Amino acid sequence: MEPHRKHSVGGGTTLHTCHPCRRTNFYRIYAVVHTCGIIALMYHHGHSLLTRRSSPLITSLLLLSDVVLAFMWATTTCLRLYPVHRSEYPERYGAKPEDFPKLDVFICTADPYKEPPLMVANTALSVMAYDYPADKISVYVSDDGGSPLTLFALMEAAKFSKHWLPFCKKNNVQDRSPEVYFSKYSHPKDDEANNIKMMYEDMKSRVEHVVHSGKVKPEFITCDQFRGVFDLWTNKFTRHDHPTIIQVLQNSEVDMDETKKHVMPNLIYLSREKSKGSHHYFKAGALNTLLRVSAVMTNSPVILTLDCDMYSNDPTTPVRVLCYLTDREIKSCLGYVQFPQKFQGISKNDIYASEFKRLFDINMIGFDGLMGPNFVGTGCFFNRRCFYGSPSNLISPEINELGPNWIVDNPFKAQDVLELAHNVAGCNYECNTNWGSKIGFKYGSLVEDYYTGYRLHCEGWRSIFCSPKKVAFYGDSPKSLIDVVSQQKRWAIGLLEVSLSRYSPITYGVKSTGLLMGIGYCQYAFWPFWLIPLFIYGFLPQLAIVYGVSVFPKTYDLWFWLYIFLFFGAYAQDLLDFVLEGGSYHGWWNDQRIWMIRGFSSFFYGFIEFTLKSLNLSTHGFNLTSKANDDEEQSKRYEQEIFDFGPSSPMFLPMTMVAIMNLLAVVWGLYGLFFRGERFILELMLASFATVNSFPIYEAMFLRKDRGKLPKYVCFLAGILTFVPIVSSYFFLK
Ligand SMILES: O=c1ccn([C@@H]2O[C@H](COP(=O)(O)OP(=O)(O)O[C@H]3O[C@H](CO)[C@@H](O)[C@H](O)[C@H]3O)[C@@H](O)[C@H]2O)c(=O)[nH]1
Ligand SMILES: [Mn+2]
């Protein structure tokens, strides 16, 4: 590990630098102090258990939750010991454009209604227009929805790109997603821009019309050469059962832009074969098919993976990445360069914590000082070689044409190339091969991104976190609470699949990547385990107040201050992390609130589903996050930062119960404090903290009338269910 490397040299000039964060020393000292505090607390619990000072059941529960909290704190601390910030200098990159490496871009989409084809087209256009030699760019769109609507949109995009690309380059347009550009400059001054705008509007209305009507009618097809393709969608065709479709929509060898001066990048539509009987491994499967198809067709050494909702916001990004990928000193072990996920249209104080500051910023710089950031699924440039075994040991695929060193020299549209491409996109192609286990993106987890990045690090690959001031990619994030918690439920299930497997970071990870990196990876793998302390601290002290039993030390006890120190210490450091990486105080408050909410919803149901799946009682799939926001009332509530609970869902039950429980406890505790002189100060502080955090829930239960309020049924059921723990704890608390 070389966390303190100041700079690195490529081609004679410094292309990138790296400096440790200034807060590191302070953090290291604090880590020692906090660790002593945790040891003291463990001693306290142990002592209570042995001397039976209080009920062993209560002490054991507290011990269990404090062990989980301490472990989580340790995982965060591992990522606080070597944080680094990097800068790179693409303007110094000296190679001639003809020597730039080829770039394959993978865009995944899976459903034309949740992921509007127009959005996919914009994503594709934004990368096709990169400031990079066009003949070196190939954009592959994988459509797991197998939809003619998406193909139609891309066909339109190909046609429009012949005008859009020269326009961007000539006028040095910075927003290369046309949708973004024209929403910023809705009244262009000159004719040229006006003209382009009209073309875009025209294309947009055609695509939207086709999507709305649900099928591509022949009169809408404007490119005769592609007319026949839509005949592939026969009556038997369904999204779960259909043959492979590969369509070259633009070919850099023959297609020129409308000025006839520049060549156009490749654009390829791919919908892999699906059949009912064979597993398709969701996005990981799609990416592996992309890897193979692109290997056959272009085999570029650099690969960019993008989700269909993530458009490029900076045309110079690929050159920035070359500052790392071509650096002779690091390139042999460099697996990928990851950009942070940034989102468009987040509310002012980010009520649902959709920015994921800890995930995408704070932890990233922590990992970056060790072996490098984890892969987050999108906005990531890969060295193709990293999918084929460790840096020192190349694992060859079953046929040479799929290997990273294979040189594609056949003309692009040659029949045998296309035939092979169809073949490797077949749904049974992977049977009895290394794909998904030793080669390519790894199968076995719903969070294929986390799992693949982790396994690459285990193999010895490094990665780099690249977070330039000008955001490189913008994506879309869920804008209603049910979408937020459902997305994180999927993540929770995927993470449990990793943490409880034989590749668990706590064993395998620590062994292969070292202590700090392995434990750092545990923070995600064991993310759902937060639910243990959350449930215990959300109910136990509150029930204790109700029954007049104390679970925490009293104010005159020295241990009281230990609790105060550990609680405020941990929270203050979390706040500091957040603010130092550019967050606001209010944003932090919302972030810690969502942390509790996800524990009582996503993690809870994630655990249940994972258990059912492990017992073979159910299966879970990849539930797509919807990117179509057409509910205006809902968007308005989001902008005003009002929680949107939307349709009735059991997902909200536990959090509503906790909210009610804590409110009861606060009322009870205050009554006891003022009228009976009971002093459950710590218990009361905890319950008040939870109550303050639950304000939006009370509001949604009692005060609101709009459609986003908490459904009556949920409130009612939660009210009744809260009595279950109250009544049952009578037996062990009284
Ligand atoms: O069977 C599938 C399912 C999904 N996708 C694509 O996967 C991407 C991510 O799906 P989304 O619904 O947006 O999930 P998110 O939770 O928003 O995505 C985050 O989490 C995923 C893992 O759960 C990662 O793959 C993503 O990169 C990461 O942004 C989208 O482009 C989909 O089109 C497929 O191609 N095939
Ligand atoms: Mn997404």
SSE arrangement:
Elements: E1 7-10, E2 13-20, H1 24-51, H2 56-78, E3 84-88, E4 103-109, H3 117-128, E5 137-143, H4 148-171, H5 178-184, H6 191-213, E6 245-250, E7 266-271, H7 282-297, E8 302-307, E9 311-312, H8 317-325, E10 334-338, E11 342-343, H9 357-368, E12 380-383, H10 415-424, H11 448-459, E13 462-465, E14 473-475, H12 481-499, H13 505-513, H14 515-525, H15 531-547, H16 558-580, H17 585-614, H18 632-639, H19 653-676, H20 681-693, H21 695-703, H22 712-728, H23 730-733
Parallel strand pairs: 4-5, 4-8, 5-7, 10-13, 11-14
Antiparallel strand pairs: 1-2, 2-3, 6-7, 8-12, 9-14, 10-12
Bound molecules: uridine-5'-diphosphate-glucose (UPG) and manganese (II) ion.
Residues 108-110, 115, 142, 144, 282-283, 286, 307-308, 377-378, 446-449, 487, 490-491, 494, 622, 624-625 line the site of uridine-5'-diphosphate-glucose.
> What best-fitting shape do the alpha-carbon axes yield?
globular
Mean pLDDT across every amino acid position = 93
End-to-end Cα distance: 55 Å
Number of domains: 2
What's the total helix number? 23
Structural class: alpha/beta
Helix content: 40-55%
Would you count the extended β strands for me?
14
Taken as a percent bin, the fraction of beta residues is 5-15%
Rg, rounded, reads: 27 Å
Unreliable spans are 1-12
Mind describing the biggest β-sheet?
Answer: 8 strands, mixed
Placed side by side, the strands forming the largest sheet appear as: 6-7-5-4-8-12-10-13
Ligand catalogue? uridine-5'-diphosphate-glucose, manganese (II) ion
InterPro entries: Cellulose_synth (IPR005150), Nucleotide-diphossugar_trans (IPR029044)
Function: Thought to be a Golgi-localized beta-glycan synthase that polymerize the backbones of noncellulosic polysaccharides (hemicelluloses) of plant cell wall.
Family: Belongs to the glycosyltransferase 2 family. Plant cellulose synthase-like G subfamily.
Active site: 144, 449
